[in-house]
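Budget justification aside, the reviewers requested a transparent look at the raw inputs and outputs of the sequence design task funded under Objective 1. We therefore reproduce one unedited record. The lines immediately below are the structure tokens for a 477-residue chain.
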């Protein structure tokens, strides 16, 4: 019996080391073009010139920069006193090869990084298309022909500007997230690079998920990808986003932006599995606008990062529109994960469901920050908020900050919150069945996050459970 346990322990250790290497793998920095550190009009013009952008995009960048200079740093939420935008490299193009459709054409060291992360293996098995961004530019982009033949577009933003300029110009940071929304949206608007453009024609259902993966490799840089998804009336798509970065001593910044437009009776699911290193400030802005009968789902797993501030928001603009948020935040030592959801009910008979789960250990801090707003005249609204926090020790902190702004009387609103720890009796029961204590705790945590994992394709549910297991052991940077 002891021999068997010893063998299993060795195998488990080797497996965990292999998993750690997948995410902590790093390449020596190389760049075809690297912008100066910090943010200035000169840097913004250099980035725009390097990307050979049209004049209207440069004008939007400069207007965003003006907003950024005027707006103060947030004085709420996690402390950002260690964040120094002036020391961040906002743009780094690793290689002249960008947007390749043939995986074999991607440079070997970059390809090796994504191979370790399971790309394009996952594409071959379970996906309709994959985009891979390395540093500031997309290096690989491919959509399966069966969807292209139906008019589906999945490409990087730069290519979309060239080939679908009217659509990008109409939607890009105009109808969803304006630069004036917050300081980091303004920062993003000034120096954005890379990201995805997804267009689903009317009535088309993309039956396989499509994925974009964003990788920061270099120390002290920022990644500012933009994702723009347009689902026309009756369309249906599931978009998956993966993110990771190795650990360095200097801080990195991730300030992406996601804009989703859901047509009448259309459906979009946006799933995120993030594993930023613990020197990264993750400061995203995400927003969806949903027309009558449309459905928007946000499925989010936030691991890693030093600080995360992320509350995806949805505007339910048409009667019968619906929104669902399922979020998981995990905070270990030195981490502050501030996540949540925002929903604005702007039309009658709209509905929303928010299910937030958080796990904290080793003095980590998690927080749910939410807003449900019901506008005058939005009768028949139904909304529920459920916040569950699991604390694995007495040193960790978990907060819940829900806010409801109800300006209509005909509303069904519910809110529930629980905070708990893993009970000794649960661990004892599992140990009595021959399961070791660490594995027993991991099993309980896996059950706790099941509402999120069951919404993901099998490969990604397994991936999320692996990440949580590694985080619980402190094995990830």
């Amino acid at each position: 019996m002891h021999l068997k346990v010893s063998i299993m322990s060795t195998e488990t250790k080797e497996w965990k080391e292999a998993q750690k290497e997948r995410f902590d793998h790093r390449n020596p920095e190389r760049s075809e073009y690297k912008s100066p550190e910090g943010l200035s009009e000169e840097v913004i013009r250099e980035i725009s010139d390097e990307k050979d952008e049209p004049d209207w995009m440069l004008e939007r960048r400069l207007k965003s920069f003006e907003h950024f200079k005027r707006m103060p740093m947030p004085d709420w939420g996690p402390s950002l006193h260690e964040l120094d935008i002036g020391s961040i490299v906002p743009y780094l193009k690793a290689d002249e090869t960008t947007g390749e459709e043939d995986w074999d054409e991607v440079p070997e060291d970059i390809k090796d990084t994504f191979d370790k992360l399971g790309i394009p293996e996952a594409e071959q098995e379970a996906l309709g298309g994959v985009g891979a961004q390395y540093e500031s530019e997309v290096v690989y982009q491919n959509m399966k022909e069966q969807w292209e033949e139906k008019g589906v577009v999945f490409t990087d933003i730069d290519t979309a500007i060239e080939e679908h300029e009217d659509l990008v110009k109409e939607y890009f940071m105009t109808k969803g997230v304006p630069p004036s929304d917050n300081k980091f949206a303004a920062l993003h608007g000034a120096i954005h690079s890379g990201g995805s453009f997804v267009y689903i024609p009317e009535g088309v259902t993309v039956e396989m998920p499509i994925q974009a993966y964003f990788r920061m490799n270099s120390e002290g840089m920022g990644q500012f990808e933009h994702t723009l998804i347009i689902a026309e009336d009756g369309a249906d798509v599931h978009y998956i986003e993966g993110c990771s970065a190795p650990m360095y001593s200097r801080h990195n910044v991730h300030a992406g932006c996601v804009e989703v437009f859901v047509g009448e009776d259309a459906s979009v699911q946006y799933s995120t599995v993030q594993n930023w290193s613990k020197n990264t400030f993750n400061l995203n802005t995400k927003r969806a606008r949903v027309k009558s009968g449309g459905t928007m789902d946000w499925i989010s797993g936030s691991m890693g990062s030093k600080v995360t501030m992320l509350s995806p928001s949805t505007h339910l603009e048409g009667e019968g529109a619906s929104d669902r948020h399922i979020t998981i935040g995990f905070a270990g030592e030195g981490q502050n994960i501030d996540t949540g959801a925002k929903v604005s009910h702007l039309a009658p008979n709209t509905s929303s469901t928010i299910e937030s789960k958080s796990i904290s250990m080793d003095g980590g801090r998690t927080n749910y920050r939410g807003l449900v707003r019901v506008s005058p005249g939005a009768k028949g609204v139904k909304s529920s908020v459920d916040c569950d926090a699991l604390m694995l020790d007495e040193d960790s902190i978990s907060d819940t900050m829900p806010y409801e702004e109800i300006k209509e009387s005909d509303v069904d609103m519910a809110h529930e919150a629980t905070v708990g720890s893993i009970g000794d009796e649960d661990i004892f029961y599992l140990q009595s069945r021959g399961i070791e204590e660490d594995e027993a705790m991991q099993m309980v945590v896996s059950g706790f996050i099941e509402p999120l994992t069951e919404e993901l394709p099998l490969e990604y549910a397994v991936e999320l459970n692996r990440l949580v297991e590694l985080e619980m052991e402190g094995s990830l940077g």
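The two ends are 34 Å apart (CA to CA). Confidence is low (pLDDT under 50) at residues 1-11. Computational costs for records of this kind are itemized in the attached budget.
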